[in-house]
């Protein structure tokens, strides 16, 4: 964790044996942009000077940050140059923070430098605590604590044409209608949508958003909070929502989308929609209309330079010099704007942020961040701003306490979208898992309705991703045969049609590897052979994607190293099972790594994710002992086509192509 030097400004004794220490420091523009500084609810290690009797001692304590204020510096503002030089920072902003520590004898030496290291942030834990504490005041309390058929009964919805155009199957349309009617109704409620792999749950979410916002005769302002457990999942949704811009324009509406979060964790495609970035742009535009004529010319000149460089930088061939000049021009323009705000730049940006949130129709952020200070200020129970509904994507990947965080904002209508058959929330300890801490709100509510009769969960059953041969096994084993293949995947013709859709490479690795290893060189070599064969067969097209899934980080690292040595293209992605949830690739190669001790792959939820990422072809590499001893893999062996042939035959089966090395040795010998 980064260390910060700060100047001790004040010491204040408070009741209950605690002391409040006030510090001040400078941060650079880069740290400001990336939100790298001390924040409220940080736990820190603090070193400062205390005088006890006649002795000055260095004191090292644990502290809890209770308040932080940050202010951007004006261009000619007087700053402590000696301190700035000492901490080796070009001052861009001043950060003042108050720290709570246990009281100690003596007194702190004011004006001396202190050293701070951030250990962790407990902001998410505090929000979870607050959400659970406030559950008693929520209109959704009975829905959450005691789910009943009466509370979750879905009244009949009159069928009508949807506001947004686009094909939806029967179940998707039913989910859109029922969810949107609940969200626009007067009663509190929770609606659950289970979306197995490839069934179009994101499409359903997009249509729910449009159905709520595009309703005719809609005079009241509507705001939809769209959240997910991770920034990656939020950005995936935000990018899809950005794609609705033309549909909003068609009904003469502006896409009022705001993305909350630090810039450094947000996808570049989404950064233009960041709250802070939009607020700055709006303030700058306002200044252009209000400043004096002489200052306007300066602003216009700097803005023109910035726009010209931005157009050059958008060119894919732009070099680093252009990017550097663009960033410099942007900084110069912002400095000129700050000079014209009379020292109130931060305050004016904050006002624009509040105005944007009040007028936003779609707010995207993570579950843990959705009830931040700015959101609480705008959507507090005492304000006139209300959130129409909250849509939680990947709802089964968050624990129940996290899913309650939107309740802090007074949310009383929630749409939960997820799949209990896929990855659950991550729990750090076995004890927490045993006590059900990792169980999602979605899963617990669903468990209250074990039979199909009265079950309020809307299951999407038509899958549009996988070749029918690929979907057969997960459909039978994980979804009790309820999934059907769409006509589009049944009739699909492409360059992949000549590939075998489903193969298992089953060979004896007992003599190759140690059972304690978390990487497997033989499988890596097999992966490379498969990639070469695929590239040979698909050489006529550059527009295809391959994913390599493995349970272990070590195997992932080793495969990536081998791919870099051989200069494979960017169309090949290597990652662990957990990182592949929500993704799909044309071809998936799965490296199981270990033998019968492979406990990781006996986790049905993770295995379901791994087996359902492929559109056209899925190739599994594993040992013979794994397919004999692991329950789920015994089923795999009985249902999949297994190959244990020589390399020449294997490649011919794979790509139906005779232009292969004339190798007659067994596959194990060839791959070692």
Automatic annotation (TrEMBL):
GO molecular function: ATP binding; helicase activity; hydrolase activity; transcription termination site sequence-specific DNA binding
Keyword Iron-sulfur in record: no
SMART domains on file: AAA
Superkingdom to which the source organism belongs: Eukaryota
Stretches of the chain forming a coiled coil according to its record: none
Any single Gene Ontology cellular-component annotation: nuclear body
UniProt keyword terms in alphabetical order: ATP-binding, Helicase, Hydrolase, Nucleotide-binding
Record-given protein name: AAA+ ATPase domain-containing protein
């Amino acid at each position: 964790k980064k260390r910060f030097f700060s100047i001790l400004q004040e010491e204040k004794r408070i009741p209950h044996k605690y002391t409040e220490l006030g510090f001040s420091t400078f941060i650079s523009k880069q740290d400001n942009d990336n939100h790298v500084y001390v924040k409220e609810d940080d736990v820190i290690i603090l070193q400062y000077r205390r005088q006890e009797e006649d002795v000055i001692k260095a004191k090292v304590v644990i502290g809890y940050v209770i308040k932080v204020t940050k202010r951007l510096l004006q261009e000619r503002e007087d700053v402590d140059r000696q301190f700035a030089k000492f901490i080796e920072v070009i001052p861009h902003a001043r950060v003042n923070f108050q720290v709570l520590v246990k009281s100690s004898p003596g007194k702190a030496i004011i004006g001396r430098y202190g050293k701070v290291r951030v250990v962790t942030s407990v902001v998410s834990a505090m929000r979870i605590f607050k959400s659970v504490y406030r559950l008693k005041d929520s209109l959704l309390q009975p829905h959450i604590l005691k789910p009943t058929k009466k509370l979750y009964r879905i009244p009949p919805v009159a069928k009508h044409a949807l506001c947004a155009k686009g094909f939806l199957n029967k179940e998707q349309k039913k989910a859109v209608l029922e969810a949107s009617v609940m969200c626009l109704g007067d009663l509190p409620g929770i609606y659950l949508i289970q979306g197995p792999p490839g069934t179009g749950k994101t499409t359903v979410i997009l249509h729910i958003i449009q159905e709520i916002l595009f309703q005719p005769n809609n005079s009241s302002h509507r705001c939809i909070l769209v959240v997910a457990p991770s920034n990656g999942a939020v950005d995936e949704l935000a990018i899809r929502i950005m794609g609705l811009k033309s549909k909003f324009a068609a009904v003469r509406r502006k896409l009022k989308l705001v993305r909350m979060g630090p810039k450094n964790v947000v996808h570049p495609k989404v950064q233009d929609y960041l709250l802070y970035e939009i607020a700055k742009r709006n303030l700058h535009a306002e200044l252009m209309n209000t400043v004096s004529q002489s200052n306007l010319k300066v602003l216009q000149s700097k803005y023109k330079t910035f726009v010209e460089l931005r157009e050059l930088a958008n060119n894919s061939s732009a070099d680093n010099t252009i990017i550097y000049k663009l960033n410099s021009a942007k900084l110069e323009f912002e400095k000129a704007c700050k000079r014209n705000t009379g020292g109130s730049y931060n305050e004016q940006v904050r006002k624009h942020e509040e105005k944007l949130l009040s007028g936003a129709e779609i707010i995207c952020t993570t579950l843990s961040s959705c009830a931040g200070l700015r959101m609480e200020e705008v959507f507090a129970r005492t304000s006139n701003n209300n959130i129409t509904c909250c849509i939680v994507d990947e709802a089964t990947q968050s624990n129940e306490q996290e899913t309650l965080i939107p309740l802090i904002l007074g949310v009383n209508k929630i749409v939960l979208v997820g799949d209990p058959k896929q990855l659950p929330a991550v729990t750090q300890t076995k004890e927490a898992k045993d006590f059900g801490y990792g169980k999602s709100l979605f899963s617990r509510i669903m468990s209250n309705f074990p039979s199909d009769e009265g079950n309020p969960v809307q299951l999407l059953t038509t899958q549009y991703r996988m070749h029918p041969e690929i979907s057969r096994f997960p459909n039978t084993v994980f979804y009790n045969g309820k999934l059907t293949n769409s006509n589009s995947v049944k009739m699909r013709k492409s360059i992949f049609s000549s590939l075998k859709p489903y193969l298992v490479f089953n060979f004896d690795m007992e003599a190759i590897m140690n059972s304690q290893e978390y990487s497997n060189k033989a499988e890596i070599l097999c992966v490379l052979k498969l990639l070469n064969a695929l590239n040979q067969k698909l050489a006529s097209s550059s527009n295809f994607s391959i994913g390599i899934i493995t349970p272990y980080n070590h195997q992932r690292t080793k495969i990536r190293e081998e791919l870099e040595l051989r200069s494979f293209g960017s169309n090949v992605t290597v990652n662990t099972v957990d990182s592949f949830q929500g993704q799909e690739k044309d071809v998936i190669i799965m490296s199981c790594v270990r033998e019968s001790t492979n406990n990781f792959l006996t986790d049905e939820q993770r295995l379901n994710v791994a087996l359902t990422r492929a559109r056209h072809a899925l190739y599994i590499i594993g040992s013979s002992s794994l397919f004999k001893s692991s329950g789920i893999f015994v089923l795999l062996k009985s249902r999949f086509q297994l190959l244990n042939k020589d390399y020449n035959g294997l490649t011919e089966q794979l790509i139906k192509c005779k232009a292969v090395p004339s190798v007659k040795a067994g596959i194990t010998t060839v791959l070692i």
